[in-house]
Every structure is written in structure tokens, then in C-alpha cells.
Amino acid sequence: MKKLTLLFFSIIFSFGVVKGQESVWETPMHEVRFTSEGVEGATLKVDPGFRYADLRQNERHFRIFFNNNNGIIKNARIIDQDSKLQVARGRGSYFWGTARFEFIDGEVFKVKLKRNRNGYDVIGPYGPLFIVENFGIKPVKTLNEKDFLAQAFYVFDRIKSSQKPPSEVIILTSRIATIQ
Predict the structure, then answer these.
(1) What superkingdom does the record give (predicted)?
(2) Total Cβ atoms within 10 A of residue 9
(3) Other C-beta atoms lying within 10 Å of the C-beta of residue 160
(4) How far apart are CA 6 and CA 102, in angstroms?
(5) What separation in angstroms does the CA of 153 have from each of 27, 73, 101?
(6) How far apart are CA 59 and CA 56, in angstroms?
(7) Parallel, antiparallel, or unpaired for β 52-57 and 39-46?
(8) I need a labelling partner for 23 at 20 to 30 A (CA). Which of 7, 70, 89, 130 fits?
(9) Measured between alpha carbons, how far is residue 154 from residues 78, 122, 171 in Å?
(10) Angstrom distances, CA of residue 97 to CA of 13, 72, 91, 120
(11) Most confident of 36-40, 129-133, 138-142, 165-169
(12) Exposure of 62 in the CB half-sphere (CA atoms within 13 A)
């Protein structure tokens, strides 16, 4: 009887262990879909705390974020999730007119921020890249993958600047002590 009971509990315990090993834990994300005529759409999943966004386009996966969670262009980063390499990095400043994305292949993608009374336009090397009109994002056609990555970055930036994290998301920041 004892052996039968021990066998029964060990079988139930082993099923529980196997189920626990198979489960995948995933954070719930806000989802934005990019659609285009005749092309399979891409998906931008934004973290509930607005610290990063994961972009999935075809078979490629990118992570978009600001280094140190500081929302200026020189802290912008785009990372390829498969190879863990930095694809693009933001440099410069909008104020001085030197804002740009530097891609890993050496291409420099200059961007210009043009403000108007109802929003703003981000102009890339091939024309308008991102347009905000009347507090909404206006669709803009992209020409290549780098154009699309920069546009996805500005969509993430707009979501981050216009939304607040929900109250159940706790953001911990640590102060960095400087020695003077």
C-alpha cells in the first residue's frame, strides 16, 4: 500500500514538474500593427512601462529603446534580437540640426524635426518619415528597411511621450552617485 501511494504521488509530481518546465512566461505588451498594401505587416510590441519596444518584421526581430531610459535622440538604440548586435544608434541633437541615425553598415541617416501648430514632421533623407497631425500619427510610406526602422523608432517615441504607464507598473530608478 505504501509503495502504491508513493508511486501515485511520484507520478503526479513528475507531471507537475514537466508542465512547469514547458510553460513560457511572457509580459503582456501593447501591440501596434504596421500594414501596407501587398506586404505582410510588422508588429511593434511596446512594454507596459514604455521602456522598450520589440519590432517583428517577417523573420527579423528588433528591440528599440533609449539607453538609460533618457528620451533624447543620442540615446536611441536599435538592436537585432537574433544576433544581439546594435543595428543603429542615434547621434546629435535636433536643436543644432545634427540629429541622425548611424547604422552598422556605415550609412548615416540624417533626420530633421519640423514643428507646426498641429503637430510635427520628421523628415529623413528620402522625404517625410513620420508625421503627427492633430495629435494623431499620419501614415507615411517607407522606401527601405532603414527607413522603416527609423519610422518604427518614432512611433515608439510618440507612444512613450503621449502615454503614462498604468498604476500597476512600478518603475524603479537608481540614483547614480557622482564623486566630485
Answers:
(1) Bacteria
(2) 10
(3) 21
(4) 63
(5) 21, 10, 10
(6) 7
(7) antiparallel
(8) 7
(9) 12, 9, 22
(10) 64, 14, 11, 15
(11) 129-133
(12) 23
How far apart (Å, rounded) are the C-alpha atoms in residues 16 and 36?
45
Spell 22-49 as b/e; 16+ CB within 10 A means b: eeeeeeeeeebebeeeeeeebebbbbee
Q: Would you kindly state where each structural domain of the chain is located, as residue ranges?
A: 30-162
CB of 89 within 8 A of CB of 82? no
Coil vs helix vs strand at 125:
coil
pLDDT tens column, 8-60: 667 776 666 556 556 566 777 888 888 766 557 789 999 888 889 999 988 89
> How far is 81 from 33, CA to CA, in rounded Å?
19
Residues near 124 by Cβ (< 8 Å), separated by ≥ 6? 109, 110, 111, 147, 150
What is the reported pTM? 0.77
Q: Give the sign of the dihedral formed by CA 69, CA 71, CA 73, CA 77.
A: positive
Q: Is the distance from CB of 16 to CB of 32 less than 8 angstroms?
A: no
> Which residues 6+ apart lie within 8 Å of 40 measured at CB?
58
What grid cell was written down for 38? 501587398
What Rg value do the Cα atoms of the chain yield, rounded? Answer: 22
Which cell numbers hold the place of 93?
541633437
